[in-house]
Amino acid sequence: MRKSALTAITVLSAGVAVLLTPGMSPAKPKAAADWQQVGYDLQSGISGLAVASRSGDTFSALVVRDNKKPGQNRIAKVTYQQGRTPDVTPLAWQGGAEPVDLEALDRVPGTKDEYVAVASRGLAYHLKTTDAGEAVEVLDISPLPAIGHGDDFESFTLTARNGKLAALWADRGAGDRPATLYAAPFSINSYGQSTFGAVSKTAFRTAYPSGDVRHASDIEVTKSGRVLISSASDAGDDGPFDSAVSEAGRLTVADTGKVRLSLAKSPKLLEKFTGHKIEALHCVPGSDLAALGTDDENAGGAVTTARFCD
Predict the structure, then answer these.
(1) pLDDT per residue as tens digits for the range 237-254
(2) What gap in Å lies between CA 285 and CA 92, rounded to an integer?
């Protein structure tokens, strides 16, 4: 194909469009972040994070953990302030069997106490905080649509545009296999079920890190529609780990609800994070900060912030 024809490739489907656009130039990595530890063992890592509230430089978030055995904590509340040890409160799981391998979490836009958590094999849990914030209740369990062979999900986010909701999620990919990004209109019906419109998908490959890489370990859409993706390398439970956050493109939602995902051919590298495996990325409401969480396996988990959002 001629170079001019490669400038933009658009894949259209009912309700969804995916656009590949010319690349963004790499940015110089910033200094290492100031990480605050939230746990010190295999069961205390963070695999997904959603900010619930913010006051000044302090925020509270719900975090999910990829634990698999009965009785191990699945979800917790973390209160973070830079330079201080975070307060971590495990929450009870009510209304259904404990999930296996939760990997992503986001709050439902327009609500204060409803969330969607996603497990690695593609089950989406509609949750609501209850018991004065000391527990979550399962309202519904629904499979993600269009699951591909071998998909291993670590990313899920919801965004509101023009009074419409959209979901963006990803199979993480591994090594030579790129991540697969999925986008679709999203809603929750009167029964509390998560429903998805027409799905479009496209591949994403990170330039950093390399080796035992997961191309998409989490995903976020900023207020202006920029798509941020964290990527991580994982050589085993004792590491070494390495991560990066990139600006990968844009997501828009039309008045009709049509979702358009535009990915850059050369994503812009925003920052590298050596020594940690980032699995959680979420913009802090009302600020330009992104909250980052890690699952460092035997070394536990940690939280920090970086100025990626708008």
Answers:
(1) 999 999 999 999 999 999
(2) 26
Exposure pattern of 73-105 as b/e (b: 16+ CB <10 Å)?
Answer: bbbbbbebeeeeebebeebebeeeebbebbbbb
Q: 138 - beta bridge partners? A: 127
What confidence tens digit (pLDDT) does each residue in 187-221 have?
Answer: 999 999 999 999 999 999 999 999 899 999 999 99
Closest CA to 45 of 268, 241, 246, 253: 241
Query: Residue 185: enclosing H or E segment and its boundaries?
Result: strand 179-188
Residue 54 lies in a domain: yes
Q: How many folded domains does the chain comprise?
A: 1
Q: pLDDT at residue 29 above 50?
A: no
* Domain carrying residue 258: 36-307
Distances (CA, A) of 128 to 64, 99, 137, 168: 14, 15, 5, 21
Residue 7 domain flag: no
CATH number at residue 262: 2.115.10.20
